[in-house]
Design brief:
The complex is a heterodimer of chains A (512) and B (198). With 512 residues, chain A is of the alpha/beta class. Chain A contains twelve helices and 23 strands. In chain A, the strands form six sheets. In chain A, strands 7-15-16-17-14-20-21 form a seven-stranded antiparallel beta sheet. A six-stranded parallel beta sheet of chain A has the order 1-9-4-3-13-23, covered by helices on one side. In chain A, helix 1 runs parallel beside helix 12 (497-511) and helix 5 packs across helix 10 (394-411). Chain A starts with 12 loop residues before the first strand and ends with a helix. The mean pLDDT of chain A is 96. Chain B has a domain at 54-169. Chain B is an all-alpha fold and 198 residues long. The chains are: A alpha/beta (512), B mainly alpha (198). The interface between A and B is large, with 83 and 71 residues. Chain B: InterPro entries: TAT_signal (IPR006311). Chain B: It comes from Alcanivorax sediminis. Chain B: This is Transcriptional initiation protein Tat. Chain A: FAD binds at residues 107-110, 224, 496-497.
Chain lengths: 512, 198
């Protein structure tokens, strides 16, 4: 085993600016594609077992101190497609990190274990009998400890969380502090722009430096274009190193008998489709779900300052079980730029008044248990995210909006803004049905965002009806693994990062 | 090989088939999208508006966006910096558009053209830039509640304008928004987390 060389700050990353030759040829025991939740964990687990690990990340390496706390600039610097990744009809932004550390760098730190009723569905419907609560518990325990996951303390529940909690208590709804992977939260409210002081326990400051301490090598600006096989068995990847001005710095090949795809639920299936691999079932890219989310804003009589304090404080899980609605509500802080995108208060005077009163707004994020109706496609030139909220899920979305409105009103809000394309304001309970029932499941009618793409290479026991085994290996290609949210057979209602960490840990242990 | 067999467009877009075929709908997206590209850090937001030159938007596009900005953000009445004479909102959009891929830039231009020229009987088929304040507002509201395409286009243009106004730090004090705080507050860095115990 190599000598452990942990460094106290930053990462040693091979970047496009370091490239001096036209072609780079590398060899390893394992090549990991992607450096987010799945890739970083897998890299660390295998490196600490003495494997020679190479991590390839398509995005740039942006050190924490370079984060700007400016959301618009962060979208450009840290997000996939510069924040513009959307579904085909353009009414659903799919926000994913595209940098070393992946989405873990730009998420809100929320950590839920996979709900047990979801695991039971997977066992029953997908033959994943191994994935029981008892089997996964030790993995959850371990990653939660590694990432300082804890229930928000009282000081981590900002004003917007406090009013929402009070409203939920008034309604008798179950409300709990969110669990987050953060150490000594700085309460800056800029989670979505990356944590400048390394308090968020993202992969950038945890598993990646740990993997590197055990000898893993990390390459940024390196997009894998193809997975290579020999005799039907994984043998490595081909990649392109691209400078930040878009020019090609070098081509790269990595020979490795184990290939782990952890590029996320949009990019991983694209790579498999490009490579023409692991698609006996025809399900690569299919089965896409994403927790289409809305941010329902409410205006309060007293100042809230939704940008102050920890971004996410509490959640209402009263309706989490599908039998009760299949959605959760999380209080959500936001800044001015986000505010302009989340509601349609009208044009001119009403818009100005809405913004003028920005400090009186609080937000609720809805997450619904959507069905896996979407698909990631590759037409030879570009990817497409074909996803429309299904008619089966639309009632759930409306129930979530209604619950958010009711909760805002109970919390003392005087106005609630329905995040639709047209102006819809709720001022009393009597308005709720009126404003929400008339919503239509048409493109461009709801302002949706997804932070949780899932399901596009889903696990299952049957190789004709799934892409990957429960141990992460593809059914079709020995040595080729998937270790990201592509694995999830159904949407899991809750933020998926901890589920990915736990599954990736388990996959890596099985690989070794 | 490129697959051109894309899903058919919704029927109500039939009249806008050429635009849709070019992917406008997806690009209206880009609104939500690339519109956010970081331009404030370049040179736009401190320039005096009268000195501005536009490198990406054409003159008629500047006129349309300026007029929509006036209708959408009558800022002076609210004690906020002017959206046209203090904060160079349109210039910021111009800078952003420079960073769009060529196809996206073309689609944005197409969208602006359609928005300005969309003939509507109730507005006597006038261009948007020729409408009075009241009629212009009415037109925007009609688009906002219109068909799929119209809603998407309107949402896109409004998002472009709002983002490129409120990203300017001069708009923040009036709303008590603090902007970046870590350095102001002197929050210290923690560095990498220690290695887990075996």
């Amino acid at each position: 085993m190599s000598q452990v060389k942990w460094q106290a700050s930053g990462l040693q990353v091979h970047q496009a600016s370091d490239v001096t030759s036209e072609h780079i040829a590398l060899e390893a025991d394992v090549v990991v594609v992607g450096s987010g939740a799945g890739g970083a964990v897998t890299a660390y687990e295998l490196a600490r077992m003495g494997k020679r690990v190479i991590v390839l990340e398509a995005g740039p390496y942006v050190p924490s101190q370079a984060f700007t706390e400016d959301f618009t600039e962060s979208l450009h610097a840290l997000y996939q497609d510069k924040g513009g990744q959307a579904n085909s009809s353009g009414d659903l932004l799919v926000l994913q990190g595209a940098c070393v550390g992946g989405s873990t760098v730009v998420n809100g730190c929320v950590c839920f274990r996979t709900p047990d009723f979801i695991l039971q569905d997977w066992q029953r419907d997908f033959g994943l009998s191994e994935l029981t609560e008892a089997e996964l518990a030790p993995y959850f325990d371990e990653v939660e400890q590694n990432l300082s996951v804890h229930d928000n303390g009282e000081h981590e529940i900002a004003r917007h969380g406090q009013v929402i909690r009070a409203g939920a208590n008034k309604l008798g709804w179950s409300v709990k502090p969110l669990r987050r992977n953060i150490r000594q939260c700085g309460l800056t409210g800029h989670c979505l722009s990356g944590c400048k002081t390394e308090r968020k326990q993202s992969m950038l400051v945890t598993y990646l430096p740990w993997a590197q301490a055990h000898g893993a090598r990390i390459y940024s600006d390196t997009r894998v274009e193809k997975v290579v096989t020999e005799g039907g068995v994984a043998s490595g990847v081909e990649a392109v190193v691209t400078r930040h001005d878009g020019t090609v710095a070098a081509t790269m090949t990595v020979k490795a008998p184990r290939v782990v795809l952890a590029a996320g639920a949009v990019q991983t299936p694209v790579l498999l489709l490009k490579s023409g691999l692991a698609n006996r079932s025809g399900l690569v890219g299919k089965n896409f779900a994403c927790h289409p989310s809305l941010l329902v804003a409410g205006r309060y009589p007293e100042p809230i300052h939704p940008w102050r304090g920890a971004m996410l404080g509490v959640h209402v899980d009263e309706f989490m079980h599908p039998d009760k609605g299949g959605f959760i509500l999380e209080d959500g802080g936001f800044g001015l730029v986000e505010m302009t995108m989340l509601a349609e208060p009208g044009t001119g005077k009403p818009f100005m008044e809405y913004m003028e009163n920005a400090r009186y707004l609080a937000g609720l994020v809805t997450l619904i248990h959507d069905h896996n109706v979407g698909a990631i496609e590759w037409d030879g030139e570009r990817k497409a995210i074909n996803y429309q909220l299904s008619d089966a899920d639309f009632p759930s979305m409306k129930r979530a909006i209604k619950a958010a409105a009711k909760l805002h009103l109970a919390s003392g809000a005087t106005e609630v803004y329905v995040p639709a394309s047209d102006k819809r304001v709720i001022r009393s309970e009597a308005d709720i049905d009126l404003q929400v029932d008339s919503l239509e499941n048409d493109p461009q009618h709801l302002r949706m965002v997804s932070y949780h793409p899932q399901g596009t290479c889903h696990m299952g026991a049957d190789p004709d009806h799934s892409v990957v085994k429960a141990n992460g290996e593809t059914h079709d290609v020995p040595g080729l693994y998937v270790a990201d949210a592509s694995l999830l057979p159904t949407s899991i209602i809750v933020n998926p990062q901890i589920t990915v960490y736990a599954l990736a840990t388990r996959i890596a242990r099985h690989m070794s | 090989m490129k697959n051109n067999n894309r899903a058919p467009l919704p029927g109500h877009l039939a009249g806008l088939e050429p635009l849709s075929r070019r992917g406008f709908l997806r690009a209206s997206v880009l609104a939500g999208a690339a519109l956010t590209s970081g331009c404030a850090s370049l040179f736009g937001r401190k320039d005096a508006p009268e000195t501005l030159q536009y490198y990406s938007l054409k003159p008629d596009e500047v006129d349309v966006i300026t007029r929509l900005t006036e209708i959408m953000l009558p800022t002076e009445r609210y004690g906020l910096p002017s959206s046209t004479t203090v904060v160079p909102t349109v210039k910021n959009i111009d800078i952003m558009a420079q960073r769009f891929p060529e196809q996206t830039r073309e689609l944005l231009g197409l969208g602006i053209w359609v928005f300005n020229n969309r003939p509507m009987m109730s507005f006597k088929f006038k261009k948007f830039t020729s409408l009075s304040d009241a009629k212009a507002l009415e037109y925007v509201n009609a688009m906002q509640e219109g068909a799929f395409f119209e809603r998407g286009l309107m949402t896109t243009l409004k998002a472009l304008i709002a983002l490129n106004y409120w990203r300017d730090e001069r708009t923040w004090p009036g709303l008590e928004y603090h902007g970046p705080v870590t350095e102001t507050w002197g929050v210290r860095r923690l560095g990498n987390a220690p290695l887990p115990r075996a």
